[in-house]
User: Which sequence fits this backbone?
């Protein structure tokens, strides 16, 4: 009982610290720096302590100080309660979603069973969808309660876009669920121990469709029509400032991490290294004793998982800085006329293959 | 659906896009009436950057107009300089030396490259393609470095003079230009790869902002926007000034006049302009760059320092201004946006009696409501960018 | 030659096609399947940006010869761009070796200045030489056009290459007096030579 409690607390603290303490601030820096180097610039490097700038890594701290000291502005005539509530509704699901994503396998440590996922739900993937659709409310509320035309347009666009892509995303993922036969993310992860059984090889079309939908769900370029800055100033968070603005900003970055986590779990072999099984890993670390070997294997698995997550983050950032943005009607057309039929085709083909060959 | 909508009380949403809005680079305001996302009505309100250029010109001497012309189309200032100088020279009836003509062509084309690059880059930026923007801004920066080397300033050039130029080409200019063009071509092809065949970009710009050729002429379109409609009209070919008739270049034309055509025409014109600069550098003759006419061109420093008659004359021409014969003249040059015309009236005194500018982007801006009615609000972005309204030129 | 028959009147625009050599830029209207599927062109775009990324990262680690890095940016306060000799910065007055100004208060720069930034009050010394009693340059009005330098018959005012400290928070501090503008002949020697060269007789 106590061991379970300690395990849970340790996992929650770990995920919280790595998400809020590492990814959220660092991604802001990464986005600025990566885009800069990609665009033949140098990027942010002015924040310094004394003479040290360490390639701009002080900027997240400087930004934090800046937003904390900024005025918290609520426009005249805005609904104060919902205006304040909206960023929380956006941020909380973004943080909570990671609780069902396994960042490592299952281990026997000091006679105790360790499962490296905060909540190993049977309906893990459905839980993810449930929570991400909650974020829609935050966006719509933000757009409506700001009492600004631009915000309202942004909120409307966001609601339509996010609801549509919710549908397409759900359908895009059915193929992989059919193959693995479970909704439990830790089981899906465990099944991809063999390199050739990775989701991306079994469901290449499903991967592309899900990836597209996930980026659209997160409202990033090329799908950032709700906040398209050249059309709607900043869309639904036009009227936000200070800490509330940062909440939207952080929820966006956390969603990048979450999406990368889901993609890794479903399609890129979760915590597994290609061609290395768990048994091989354990036997490789034999020299450290049984418990030591387990701990080392666990660390390697966690590191592998986060390396893959970082790869997907890099991919998303590269796409964000490469492409122009869609128009609003084109986003919807892409969803209903391309992704939806394609995912249905994907489901049919997967079903046929399962029925005729596998069974 | 219409039965339901009949009883429903719905209002159009009126929003002010601008004068300070990310899409209105250059200050302009759109009063947009929206039905959902569809534009029901669009009114363009210009004049936020009105500085009284034409009136200011009347209060200075003929020479003092040059710094003002820099600020007309501030992305391609050298073309404005050249246009004004050519108009005054036509009024006076002088012909500049050969070398001066070539250098002016080089200056014009460098400016045009910078102008088109800025325009295409800004178009990419506003559609979200930030990287394409910065690649072209880097290329433009290199071109501006050349212009700085030539004139001593990047934007406020003030380079051309009546009957000549401020200074000759600097040493090593040709070599530097060829180096810069090499890099520009690399960046051009990168932008081309990022945008031209990218379906996201094509979907955004194609069949948006179309204009039939007849209507475009009726509106008074010129320049890349008219050529995008399929009308082969280019002042450099139709009425060659300077030495454009000796240059071998092509005039790119489009078909439907939509934003994709405008984009492609501009991209091709960058290439053609680079070709012109290379040819001009190749053919560049020696000799003086200024006319030796003390009545109209301020004299050489050698004379001013050493000869009393020249010094006295210098004082007279600077203080009273040069005095073109009475008369009026209209002369157009092909600027980045189209036909940039100068209509000058002289009453024989040292100051222009009237200096009127035909801004090429004024008719283009006037056609915005025609191009935008019934489209989506997001279509304003590429359309307004591709007509390239420059506040300084449109509002003067 | 393009002709349009619009409501009875004939509109003719352009020049004969033979002289014009128009070049159609429009590609075929239908997208190829390759372009219709977004993915491949997106990957090609990502290849371009990633290539830039990789080359620039390499440039940070192994800078190309003669440069600090391969990216184009100049770290402004730490590094400075090399200005061409033509560069026009703040106009300054040239001082003779004995500490007096070259200016003889003829007023040509005052007249030629399009922004009316210069105001001079002239006076006469004991030996009959004219000099500016006060020479005020209002930098809020100066547009750096360089006309003052171009008309000056005494090489007394030149456009220096100073570009720092031009902005102030207070307008009154941007009115520079003669004493603030005086520079020694040595410091602006290059510019004086440049002026002599570009306005020399061979260019006329």
Assistant:
């Amino acid at each position: 009982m106590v061991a379970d409690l300690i395990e849970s607390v340790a996992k929650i603290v770990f995920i919280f610290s790595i998400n809020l303490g590492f990814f959220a601030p660092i991604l802001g820096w990464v986005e600025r720096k990566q885009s800069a180097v990609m665009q033949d610039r140098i990027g942010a490097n002015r924040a310094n302590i004394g003479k040290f700038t360490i390639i701009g890594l002080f900027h997240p701290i400087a930004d934090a100080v800046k937003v904390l000291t900024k005025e918290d502005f609520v426009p005249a005539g805005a609904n104060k309660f919902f205006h304040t509530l909206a960023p929380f509704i956006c941020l909380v699901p973004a943080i909570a979603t990671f609780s069902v994503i396994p960042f490592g396998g299952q281990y026997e440590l000091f006679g105790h069973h360790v499962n490296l996922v905060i909540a190993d739900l049977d309906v893990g993937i459905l839980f993810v969808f449930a929570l991400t659709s909650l974020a829609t409310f935050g966006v719509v509320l933000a757009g409506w309660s700001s009492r600004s035309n631009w915000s309202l347009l942004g909120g409307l666009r966001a609601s339509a876009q996010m609801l549509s892509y919710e549908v397409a995303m759900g359908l895009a993922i059915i193929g992989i669920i059919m193959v693995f036969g479970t909704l439990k993310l830790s089981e899906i992860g465990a099944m991809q121990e063999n390199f050739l059984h990775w989701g991306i090889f079994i469901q290449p079309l499903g991967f592309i469709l899900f990836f597209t939908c996930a980026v659209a769900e997160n409202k990033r370029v090329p799908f950032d029509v709700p906040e398209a800055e050249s059309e709607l100033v900043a869309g639904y968070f036009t009227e936000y400032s200070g800490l509330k603005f940062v909440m939207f900003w952080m929820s966006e970055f956390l969603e990048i991490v979450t999406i990368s986590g889901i993609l890794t779990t479903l399609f890129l072999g979760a915590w597994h290294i290609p061609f290395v099984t768990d048994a091989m890993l354990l036997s490789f670390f034999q020299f450290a004793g049984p418990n030591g070997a387990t701990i080392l294997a666990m660390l390697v698995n966690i590191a592998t998982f986060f390396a893959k997550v970082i790869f997907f983050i890099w991919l998303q950032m590269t796409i964000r800085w490469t492409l122009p943005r869609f128009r609003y009607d084109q986003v919807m057309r892409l969803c209903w006329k391309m992704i939806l039929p394609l995912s249905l085709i994907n489901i049919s083909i997967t079903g046929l293959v399962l029925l005729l060959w596998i069974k | 659906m219409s039965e339901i909508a009949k009883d429903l009380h719905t209002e159009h949403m009126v929003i002010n896009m601008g004068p300070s809005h990310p899409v209105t680079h250059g200050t302009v305001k759109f009063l947009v009436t929206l039905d959902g996302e569809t534009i029901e009505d669009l009114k363009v309100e210009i004049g936020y950057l009105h500085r009284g250029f034409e009136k200011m010109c009347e209060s200075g001497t003929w020479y003092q107009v040059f710094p003002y012309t820099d600020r007309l189309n501030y992305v391609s200032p050298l073309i404005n300089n050249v246009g004004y100088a050519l108009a005054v020279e036509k009024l006076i009836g002088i012909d500049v030396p050969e070398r001066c003509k070539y250098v002016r062509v080089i200056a014009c084309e460098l400016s045009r490259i910078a102008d088109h690059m800025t325009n295409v880059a800004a178009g990419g930026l506003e559609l979200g393609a930030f990287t394409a923007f910065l690649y072209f801004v880097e290329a433009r920066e290199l071109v501006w470095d050349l212009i700085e080397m030539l004139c001593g300033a990047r934007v406020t050039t003030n380079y051309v003079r009546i009957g000549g130029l401020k200074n000759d080409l600097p040493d090593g200019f040709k070599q530097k230009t060829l180096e810069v063009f090499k890099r520009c071509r690399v960046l051009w092809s990168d932008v081309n790869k990022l945008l031209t065949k990218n379906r996201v970009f094509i979907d955004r710009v194609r069949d948006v902002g179309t204009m039939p050729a007849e209507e475009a002429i009726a509106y008074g379109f010129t320049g890349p926007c008219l050529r995008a409609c399929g009308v082969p009209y280019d002042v450099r070919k139709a009425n060659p000034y300077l030495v454009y008739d000796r240059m071998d270049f092509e005039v790119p034309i489009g078909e439907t006049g939509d934003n994709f055509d405008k984009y492609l025409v501009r991209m091709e014109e960058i290439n053609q302009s680079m070709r012109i600069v290379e040819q001009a550098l190749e053919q560049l003759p020696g000799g003086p760059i200024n006319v030796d006419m003390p009545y109209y061109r301020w004299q050489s420093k050698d004379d001013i320092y050493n000869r009393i008659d020249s010094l006295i004359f210098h004082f007279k021409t600077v203080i009273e201004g040069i005095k073109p014969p009475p008369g009026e003249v209209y002369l157009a040059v092909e600027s980045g946006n189209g036909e940039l015309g100068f209509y000058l009236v002289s009453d024989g005194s040292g100051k222009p009696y009237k200096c009127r500018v035909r801004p090429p982007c004024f008719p283009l801006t006037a056609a915005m409501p025609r191009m935008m009615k019934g489209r989506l609000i997001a279509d304003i972005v590429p359309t307004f960018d591709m007509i390239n309204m420059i506040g300084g030129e449109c509002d003067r | 030659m393009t002709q349009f028959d619009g409501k009875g009147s004939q509109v003719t625009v352009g020049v004969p096609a033979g002289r014009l050599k128009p070049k159609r830029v429009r590609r075929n209207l239908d997208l190829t399947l390759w372009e219709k599927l977004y993915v491949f062109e997106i990957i090609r775009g990502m290849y371009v940006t990633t290539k830039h990324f990789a080359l620039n990262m390499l440039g940070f680690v192994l800078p190309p010869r003669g440069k600090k890095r391969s990216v184009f940016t100049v770290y402004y306060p730490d590094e400075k761009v090399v200005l061409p000799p033509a560069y026009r910065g703040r106009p300054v007055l040239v001082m003779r070796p004995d500490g007096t100004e070259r200016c003889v208060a003829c007023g040509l720069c005052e007249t030629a200045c399009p922004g009316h930034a210069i105001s001079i009050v002239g006076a006469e010394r004991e030996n009959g030489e004219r000099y500016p009693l006060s020479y005020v340059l209002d930098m809020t009005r100066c547009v750096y056009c360089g006309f003052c330098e171009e008309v000056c018959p005494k090489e007394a005012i030149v456009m220096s290459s100073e570009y720092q400290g031009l902005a102030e928070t207070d307008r009154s501090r941007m009115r520079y007096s003669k004493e603030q503008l005086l520079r020694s002949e040595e410091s602006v020697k290059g510019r004086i030579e440049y002026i002599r060269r570009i306005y020399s007789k061979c260019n006329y």
